[in-house]
Write a structure and sequence with these properties.
- The chain is built from 7 helices and 9 strands.
- It is α/β, with parallel strands linked by helices.
- Strands 3-2-1-4-5-6-9 form a 7-stranded parallel beta sheet, sandwiched between helices.
- The radius of gyration is 17 Å and the shape is globular.
- This is SDR family oxidoreductase.
- It comes from Streptomyces humicola.
Length: 249
């Protein structure tokens, strides 16, 4: 693979598994240095295995000290930031009538507050590099899905961030985009975030999709990394579904 991102640096949250892991590895395979951020040091080590350009950083993105810790580490290690990928996310069934205030706050903290505060901490280095912010949202945020109201609402909010920030940061040379995956085969479907019924429902979606299958993390990561390439320099403020046609039917 051509090392088209050699000398660039990407910060990827949620890099311990799934789309975040695939994204960190894809950046490294294109020659970029990568700060891989996640809660589990062991999972991050697995992400970095065989790719010395990936540096793991164990951090909870909801911790108030995390934004400065993440950005300072990237700058001290690599000297700059060219791409900031918000891959950390929370997914859990939330049937209406069962949602507590604490659960609401946790969804907001992970899926919206953390990207907002980390983006603010990264503004200066991103402006210096003419960098790109890439939000990983979800097709569920563009269409309704029963019992996923908190997840979908926060992902829709992330897409609004994308459109608002794109206009707000354009004068600083910073581009902002969203990649909105549909049903993707990742460990989040297997880590007790969803019960067996919900997992089966997601897999049944493939019967309704024009492409008739669940996607892979690598297919989503390909788009994320390409948005950071120089040939994407005229693209900002877009929400790109990578969902097998889910948002089109």
């Amino acid at each position: 693979m051509s090392l088209t991102l050699a000398g660039k640096t990407a910060v990827v949250t949620g890099a311990g598994s799934g789309i975040g892991r695939a994204t960190a590895q894809a950046f490294a395979d294109r020659g970029a240095n990568v700060l891989a951020v996640g809660r589990c040091r062991e999972k991050l080590s697995a992400t970095a295995q065989g790719r010395p350009a990936i540096i793991p950083l164990a951090a909870d993105v909801t911790d108030k000290a995390s934004p400065d810790k993440v950005i300072d580490t990237a700058l001290e290690t690599f000297g700059g930031i060219n791409a900031l990928v918000h891959g950390a996310g929370m997914l859990r069934r939330t049937p209406l009538g069962t949602i507590s205030a604490d659960e609401f706050d946790r969804f907001m903290a992970v899926n919206l507050r953390a990207p907002l505060l980390l983006t603010q901490a990264a503004l200066q280095p991103l402006a210096r590099s003419g960098g790109t912010i890439i939000n990983i949202s979800a097709s569920f945020g563009q269409r309704g899905w029963p019992e996923l109201s908190l997840y979908g609402a926060t992902k829709a909010g992330l897409d609004f961030f994308t459109r608002a920030w794109a206009g707000e940061l354009a004068d600083y040379g910073i581009r902002v985009v969203s990649v909105a995956p549909g049903p993707i085969e990742t460990p989040i479907l297997e880590n007790n975030a969803l019960d067996d019924y919900a997992v089966a429902a997601i897999h049944r979606l493939q019967e309704l999709l024009p492409l008739s299958r669940v996607g892979t993390a690598e297919e989503v990561a390909w788009w994320i990394v390409n948005f950071a390439e120089s040939f994407a320099a005229y693209t900002t403020g877009v929400v790109l579904p990578v969902d097998g046609g889910y948002s089109a039917v």
